[in-house]
Amino acid sequence: MIRTRKELETAEAALLAPYAQKSGESRGRIYRERQHPTRTEYQRDRARIIHSRAFRRLEYKTQVFLNGTGDHLRTRLTHTFEVANITRMIARSLGLNEDLAEAIALAHDLGHPPFGHSGEEMLDSLMKEHGGFDHNDQSLRTVDVIETRYPKFPGLNLSHEVREGLQKHAKFYQGTDDGEPHPQPSLEAQLANLADEITYYSHDLDDGLDFQLLEPEQLGELVVWKESENEVREHFPRLKGREFRSYVIRCIIDRQASDVIHTSSALIEAAKVGSADAVRRHSAPLIAYSRPLLKANQKLRRFLYKNLYYHPRVAGANQRACEMLRDVFEAYLKNPKLLGNATSRRVKTDGLHRTVCDYIAGMTDRYLLDEHARLFTPRVYANLGGRE
Ligand code: MG
Asked: Residue 373, Cβ neighbours under 10 Å: how many?
């Protein structure tokens, strides 16, 4: 028996919470398309994201550690999968639309440039006079215009609800049932956003410990670590070393997710929102940490900035890579022919700076390093067997 889209939509309506965004109630896509006979709108969105080139490139982009530093450190791609997994887990508990929440999570970092946060800062400063650079805006730009896979429209032509979820810094979102701008996105979007944080807090701690930039003794002052550490000691008093640390990380994720589930459920109930649009009109987000966890996470964040992200072994390598990013950027500005035909065609419509910025933001770490060698040390590059 084949289940039709209509049947899947009916199943969603029966199974999901009243405040979940149903795929059958989607506001559609910028370019109108015929609906699929057996797939819902958000299933299609998820497939389009996974099959995009930008998604595949996440494998070779830095999360925190320069890509290639260690085979089991997180990359932008494994980070994205972890965000998608935590998003789905919480979405299911709260009766939200898993397909929609997962699609937003899978697309959330598509616009991230090479070399992680340092790469983003460098691109932003290079674009200061030309509209700046922000990876969230770039994720939306990637799915709206940069990906070209379909003959009838630019970009991936994703649904309104996935695009809404990618507008992380928007003050107002367009399009409730009354057509007015509204202060919140869907719960699915709020969730994917918070799951990103839960994910990187836990895996950055994990990678920092694994790479021995952090020591477990340093972490005793952090409530987030301490509570989970006590929990593990209570249940597994003899656990040591890597096994111990891994299990503490596991408990941190579990505690954070369960806090968000309970806090959000209470907030949703108190707000008495009976539909996805009532969520959008609500004055405050309804997916949230409890106050104590919010405070503890803020402290963890400060700790990670001080001891991990700006650690000389992390920041030094990223800084050197970013200087290469700047060199390549400036080389393209001086000689736009280096961009190649397909990219240079964009200069007329988007201007030279934005075209160069888009091109570089789409690169993987290794492509950019390769391009730097091709432009600045061609002899070395030729000896390595590089392309013409
Ligand atoms: Mg992220």
From this structure: 17
For ligand 1, a single-atom ion, the residues with CB < 5 A are: 109, 196
**381 CA → ligand 1 middle, Å:** 33
Cα 112 to ligand 1 centre (Å) = 9
User: How much is the pLDDT for 314?
Assistant: 85
Indicate if 65 and 78 belong to the same structural domain: yes
Between the CA of 108 and the centroid of ligand 1 the distance, in Å, is: 6
Q: Write out pLDDT tens, residues 217-272.
A: 899 989 999 999 999 999 999 999 989 999 999 999 999 999 999 999 999 999 99
Q: CA end-to-end span of the chain, whole Å?
A: 54
Are both 25 and 116 inside the same structural domain?
yes
Domain count, the chain: 2
**Nearest Cα to 27, choosing from 177, 189, 185, 188?**
177
Whether residue 310 is found in the same domain as residue 345: no
Please check whether residues 278 and 167 belong to one and the same domain: yes
| Burial readout 67-91 (b: 16 or more C-beta within 10 A, e: otherwise) | bebeeebbbbbebbebbbebbbbbb
Tell me, in angstroms, the distance from the centre of ligand 1 to residue 177's CA: 30
pTM, full prediction:
0.95
Is there a domain that residue 290 lies in?
A: yes
Same domain, yes or no: 16 and 120: yes
Residue-wise burial string across 229-242, b where 16 or more C-beta atoms lie within 10 A, e elsewhere:
bebbeeeeeeeeee
Q: What is the pLDDT of residues 271-307, one digit of tens each?
A: 999 999 999 999 999 999 999 999 999 999 999 999 9
Domain end point (choices 258, 281, 315): 315
Residue range of the domain that includes 195 = 5-32+40-315
298 and 255 housed in the same domain: yes
CA 196 – ligand 1 centroid, Å: 5
Residue 388 lies in a domain: no
pLDDT at 341 over 90: no
- The answer to whether residues 26 and 82 belong to one domain is yes
